[in-house]
Write a structure and sequence with these properties.
The chain is an alpha+beta fold. It has a single domain, classed as Alpha-Beta Plaits (2-Layer Sandwich). The chain is built from 4 helices and 4 strands, in the order E-H-H-E-E-H-E-H.
Length: about 110
């Protein structure tokens, strides 16, 4: 599966939330696919931007882009490859740390 990061202006967070939470039981949905939403400053991006992590195949990315456009999230665009790689690496590191923490608790 491929991974992508989309950047969205923080001012459009409400619209983005509606898109992400719409139709969670549909055959194709953000809820079923899974996503992560990060604040710009937290992941080394720009302040005033949100970064949306998606993991999937090309048809899902086309679906996601279409839904964001339909939902009025005009600023949504894939971020540049260098920043995308850094944010994805950071998300992987966070996930790994969380798994290790759970292992320590329940291991």
């Amino acid at each position: 599966m491929a991974e992508r990061i989309y950047e969205v202006l923080s001012t459009e967070k409400g619209k983005l939330d509606k898109v992400l939470k719409a139709d969670p039981y549909a055959d194709v949905s953000f809820a079923k696919q899974g996503y992560k939403l990060k604040e710009g400053k937290v992941v080394g991006g720009e302040q005033g931007k949100l970064y949306l992590y998606l993991n999937g195949e090309d048809p899902f990315f086309r679906y996601a882009e279409e839904k964001m456009k339909e939902g009025g999230v005009a600023s949504a665009k894939r971020c540049d490859s260098a920043l995308e790689a850094r944010i994805i690496a950071q998300i992987h590191e966070e996930d790994s740390s969380a798994e290790q923490g759970m292992g320590a608790i329940f291991g």
